[in-house]
Amino acid sequence: MADTNTSITTSKEKSSSVFTLNDFNSRTNLTEKAQLSDEYNPADYRDQVKGQTTGGALAHLLKSSLGTGILAMPMAFYNGGLVFGMVATLIVGFLCTHCVQILVKTSQEICKEIRVPALNFAETAEKVFENGPKRLRSWSGFAKKFVDGGLMGTYFAAACVYMVFIATSFHDVIEYDTGIKWDVRVYIAIVVLPCLLIGQIRNLKWLVPFSAMANIFIVVTFAIVLYYLFSGEMVFSDKPLIAKATQLPLYFATVIFAMEGIGVVMPVENTMKKPQQFLGCPGVLNSAMIIVVSLYAVIGFLGYVRYGSDVLGSITLNLQKGEPLADVAKLLMAVAILFTYGLQFYIPMDILWRNISDKFKEENHNRTQILLRTGIILISGGIAAAIPNLEPFISLVGAIFFSLLGIFVPSVCETVYLWPDRLGCCKWKLYKNIFLATFAICALVAGSVASIEEIVKIYK
């Protein structure tokens, strides 16, 4: 991040601290004003010039949740059943929103205590343990590395899913309309080329136009999808209200993958000019999640009712082949996901570069970043080509990474931060977080086993 990020000026250089867009290392020294004040407000030390607007933050948050996951919701309902799928989607949506809220709130509170403008996800976990109960303070370094490693694994894996989705969409349209019978892996190789370009963008603010355009394309695609859903026969009688018990882990893994944008949350909140508008009512988070959960429930329910057991990993792939409107929907969604790739790639690269940048000379930072990003994207393309099947890949990523980072870690962080005397009446927050952590572990184990079994079946 050295070439495009402005740095935080230390007190040795200036008498005031300046928080900038992409530096989340929390090395900012206290200003004289902060030292004299009893109440430290992190927002006062954010970059008010280069920071994101509330609208920009909302666009990023929406885009982080409205990706390939929402198109997989009909498949999730197939693995859950009509009634179970609808009820569980609303419940999981509430749980995911709550976990993001407690993570952001914990981060904001710890920022006030240690007097820094912002902390990213991993730093929040580190500082919570570092300033928590004495017995847990030695775990602060592990907590930071665990979150950083999990985030990198999550978003590099999700980037592979994005490549598979884009390539599959173009493959289906071109093969049917032109008769060209190329293997989907050829399209994955072609998709790698634009990913190499958009993956070089290193400033979150510069990705706002891509997110905005992607959101427009997604809205148009959803409108076309809804048209096809309602234009065909809706059959309810042959759809189970609740699926077989062996299918339910795949349901939860897919839904958690679809809804969780946990890795984007802290970078978005950290770069807001007015972070106080992120939480609260309506707030950026609540506004985004109400829209997201509503769309997920509608698309999942109607998609499953329309296509039943024939539903694919992305609902757009079920649209009538060869029809211009269906082709437009598939291509628009593919382009929207391509535009999202930069945001998806930003998070793990930001983490990786912060941890290794000091190992390279400053004059070589730009060249090193270009080579590093290029190499990782090429490796991602290779993995995508090795597993070009969307459904089990989505479930596996959701089960392993998003269960841990989206639900388990926020609940643990809040518990450690509030321990021992701020856990509410009868310590209800402790029991609530124990439930969340248990749910996350169960989703991880059951979802991973079911997803791996599906992958094995495909390759057998």
Search tags:
globular, L-amino acid transmembrane transporter activity, 460 residues, 16 helices, Hydantoin permease, mainly alpha, disordered N terminus
Structure, described:
- With 460 residues, the protein is mostly helical.
- It folds into two domains: 51 residues, no CATH class; 379 residues, Hydantoin permease (Orthogonal Bundle), CATH 1.10.4160.10.
- Helices cover 68% and strands 0% of the residues.
- Helix 7 runs antiparallel to helix 13.
- The longest helix has 39 residues.
- The relative contact order is 0.18.
- The N terminus is likely disordered.
Mind summarizing the main beta sheet?
Answer: none
Distance between the termini: 43 Å
| CATH class category of the largest domain | Mainly Alpha
In CATH terms, the superfamily of the largest domain is Hydantoin permease
CATH topology of the largest domain: Hydantoin permease
Q: What is the CA-based Rg, rounded? A: 22 Å
Shape: globular
Please mark out the parts with pLDDT under 50 across 5 or more consecutive residues, or reply none.
1-37
